[in-house]
Write a structure and sequence with these properties.
By secondary structure, this protein is of the alpha/beta class. It has a single domain, classed as 5'-nuclease (Rossmann fold), CATH 3.40.50.1010. It contains nine helices and four strands; from the N terminus they run βααβααβααβααα. Strands 3-2-1-4 form a four-stranded parallel β-sheet. The longest helix is centred in the middle third of the chain and has 12 residues. The two termini are about 20 Å apart. About 30% of the residues are buried.
């Protein structure tokens, strides 16, 4: 399985750490990470990172999923009725690219509610016990997070 990790997960991972993502990055896994130019752009815009900083966090070295034209993305959104779910244009670009390469079993890992709703609607969401546990952890107060993080 391939996984496109959204910027929401990367931001959490870089600021708080995500044991499951670290495991995928460091170990030989049957899950392979991909990126998308839109994710890289969001990380650069959100943090002002350079390409060197993206490489340092191993994000910049991931294979990039090809982008689709804006016209193709608009057509995809209309055909699949994924408008009005709270997902933004950047997320629609990623979703359309993943859908275009659906024969490769690509999933989207995001913490964005609108993006997740659209990915789930189309059967493209990466959701397992690790992501569910981390999503609960992120919502806890810091002292509780530190205790629970050790269990993950």
């Amino acid at each position: 399985m391939y996984i496109v990790v959204d910027s929401t997960v990367w931001f959490d991972h870089i600021s708080k750490g995500n044991p499951h993502l670290t495991r995928i990055l460091k170990e030989d896994s049957d899950e392979e990470l991909l990126s998308h130019a839109t994710v890289l752009g969001e990380l650069i815009m959100g943090n002002g990172w350079t390409n060197d900083q993206l490489q340092m966090h191993e994000i910049g070295s991931l294979p990039l999923l090809p982008e689709l034209s804006s016209e193709d993305v608009m057509d995809f959104v209309r055909r699949n009725n994924v408008y009005g779910l709270g997902m933004g244009w950047a997320d629609a670009r990623i979703l359309a690219s993943v859908a275009f390469f659906s024969e490769y079993d690509i999933r989207i890992w995001t913490r964005d509610k609108g993006f997740l709703a659209a990915a789930k609607k189309l059967g493209m969401a990466y959701d397992n016990e690790h992501t569910q546990a981390f999503n609960k952890l992120i919502q806890m107060p810091n002292k509780q997070q530190n205790r629970q993080r050790k269990k993950l």
